Each structure stands twice: as C-alpha cells, then as structure tokens.
User: Fold this.
Amino acid sequence: MREFAYQRAGDVAGAVAAFAAAPGARYLGGGTNLVDLMKSGVESPERLIDVRGLGLDAVEEDADGGLRIGATVTNSDLAAHPGVRRRYPALAQAVLAGASGQLRNAATVGGNLLQRVRCGYFTDVTLPCNRRVPGSGCPAVDGEHHNHAVLGWSEHCVAVHPSDLGVALAAFDAVVSYETGAGPGELAYAALYPPVGDTPHRETSLPPGALITAVSLPAAPVAARSRYRKVRERASYAFATASVAAALEVRDGVVHDVRLAFGAVASRPWRAHAAERALTGAPATARAFGAAADAELAAARPLPHNGYKVPLLRNLMVSVLTELAEEAAR
Amino acid sequence: MRVTLTVNGRRHQADDVWEGESLLYVLRERLGLPGSKNACEQGECGSCTVRLDDVPVCSCLVAAGQAQDRDVVTVEGLADPGTGLAPVQQAFLDAGAVQCGFCTPGLLVATDDLLRHCPQPTDADIREALSGNLCRCTGYEKILDAVRLAAARSGETAGER
Assistant:
C-alpha cells in the first residue's frame, strides 16, 4: 500500500474543500471496498477524507411517503429501518442480500453507490483493464466472463455493476444529492453511471470532487408491494449472477403500476423500461410477464460464456411478478 | 499518527501508527491482542471479526484512523476473567467446533453477536449470521452444533431465573 494521509472532515463544506485541495484524494465511508482496493494497489489515493462524522447518518421519512437516506447510513441500519421495510421492502431485501453481516455493518450507502466492479481483470493490477488503465484492453471479452454483462456492454468493458441496493434504487427512481465547492446538486440515480461506450474509466456522472450527501426515494405506493430476488452461486455472501427488483400493483386483474430493474447484467443497475411499458395495462398473467421479459431482453447480447443469464433473468422476472400478483389477489 | 481507542473496556493509545495500518494490525501488533486473526485481509473470511461500536466488522478493512475514539471488543473481551470462558466459547469446545482454530475467534465474536440479538436462532438464522466467517477444517456442522448448544444453554439459564 502506498503512503497516504488520513483526515476526518468536520462538516460537508470542510470535506469538499479538503478534497479540492488534494487532487489525489478519496472520500472514505466504511472502507469495505476502498481499503481493500488500496491493499491490492487498484486504488492509491494520496489522502483519505473520512466522511463518517458529517451527520449524514439518518433515514428521514417524508410526510408524502418518500424517504431521504443519508450517505453514511450503514447498509445494516438501512435494511433495519422500519420506514424502509414498510415503504420499500425490496430495498431492505436487496441490502440484506448483499455481502456479509460484518461488511453491511461497516459499508455506507454512498460507498455502495461508488463501489468498483468485481471483475477479476479489474482487481488484478498485473493484467490489462480499460476501466483501471484506459486503453490497455479488456481481457474479459475473450476471457473469464461467465458472470459478466448481457446488456449495454461495449467491447471496451463487459463488467457488471455489483450493487444489490442499486437495483432497488433504480426501480424506485432514486435521486442522488451531492455537494461540490460550487454548491449542492442533484442527479437522477438512473444517470449516475454513464454508458460504458469507449470510456469505461469514466464511472460516474458526478462533477469532480462531488461528495454524495443523500439518496432520496420519491413516494411510490406501488413499492409497498415489492420484492428483490437474487440468484447467486451459493445461498449467502456472494455477488449476484442475476437479480430482479420488482413492484406490482394489480387492479381487476390488470397491471396498474409496475417497477422492474435487473442486477448483475449490465454496467449499471438496469431499469427494465421496455418490460414496464409492455406490462402496463396488460393482464397480470405469467404469459404477459414472460412477453414483457422478452421485450426487455430482445436487446440482450450474451457473451460466449454467459448466455445462461438471459433465460435465468426471464424466469426470475416471471416468477417474482407471479408471486406478487398472487399475493395481491389474496 | 496517534490512535486512541477503547478495547475491551480499557483505554489504549498507540503512537507512530502508519496510516496504512488496519485496526486488526493495531490490535495484534501494537496492543498485544493477537486473538483476532489475520487471514484473507480482504473482508472475505471473517477471522478478524471484532465488535466496533457494538456491531461486528472485519477489522482488516478498518483503517487505523477510522478507529480513533471508538469502542472495540475483541475475542479476548468475551470472557469474564472472574468466571472463566464465555458460554459461546465453552459451547465451541464442548461441541468439537474447533479444529485448527484460526477461524474460531471470528466465529466466536459473530456467534456472540447473533445470540445477543436472536437468543433462539433457527438454523437459517445461524447460517446467515455466520456466512461471513469461513472455516476450512470443520465443514461447519460442528460449528452449527456449537451455536445451537450455546443457544439451548442460555435458554435453560433464562428458564431457571
């Protein structure tokens, strides 16, 4: 690990100013991803600015039904929050499906959004990776990629975004609040991760030096009946091979409102807009759910070793929606 | 830098700490508490699990500076020296849940935390709570036995009160 300086910021303005004064700095939340990557040499910041003491550790419930989640709320506290569990159960389920208890106790919401990909070529500094060293190449395209993207990838990077939390945030139209030296700003979560294109090293659309301060979820009555399901290679403590966040409201057997997002299939949590459009106003049947999944997955381009993800995702989506529809009918 | 923290109820100070040291390193190499084990160093195996401000974390991923002014309980802090082993420690011994022993301290801290929050866990609860702790010897069956035994004994004790 390279030499670096460590400091605790006392307030948000101080944190942003400290970052601006130290070009090689990183904000430090729980450290579960950043400290790990510093050990392997993937990250080598000159300064860590610890932001856990900034008072951004509360979940606030809006009177209109939304939520505002502070950036340093831990994953454990987020998943345990009664307002989260009541208004957005899929969000709590997604958080609990990620990592281990030890990591969830330390990891923060802001850090979860900015965690780096888990592609083995990215995390091994002896190998090329366009995300880590722009222009060096992507060995995963012709290499080990059974767990990589089937949607939205480019030949420059085929890694998937690893967050479970993010899949629920994508489904529920989250908005990211941040602070910069020039003042505060907001960004739709859907726009946080730019398309990979030929710039996979450009991982977020945040302005330089921006500190994420909160993630807000607008009121969404449909989210009270929502579910997150994750398929992985063992029953706990593994990244997803595919996951679905879904919310469904059925009236008189017809889909009135639906939210769908996929995880572990693209460089960002994948909001399934085409499937949502196909389903809105359609009968709440397994056949319609399958047709909607096909509409979304028509754009899928599996790699030689991850074609299994397409039927897996289709079946996962149909199964989760069918369960939600059956529960609504009871 | 200087790091001041509370470990197992006692105030400690470590001087000339390098920023790149982990809480685990500070505990083992500077404070003389080698119970927490250094195995994967990347948050995968749970051997370094300690309670930090009352929740279990992987101390290998806590930078030394992050531990400043915080409260740590290590495996050394589970037992009360006046009364011998903690119930979870005794249960691990009695159930044969210890082989090479390297994962044991982390499992003890994780199990202790599980039983504080969930005194009568189901097998699913136990599996999920211990999923962040890897053991390469036992195959986990004896570890599950140990957790069930500790829970059963604390249930008996509660019943006698």
User: Anything to note?
Assistant: Strands of chain B lie at 3-7, 10-14, 49-52, 55-58, 71-73. DSSP finds five helices and five strands in chain B. Helices of chain B lie at 23-30, 87-95, 104-117, 123-129, 141-160. The mean pLDDT of chain B is 96.
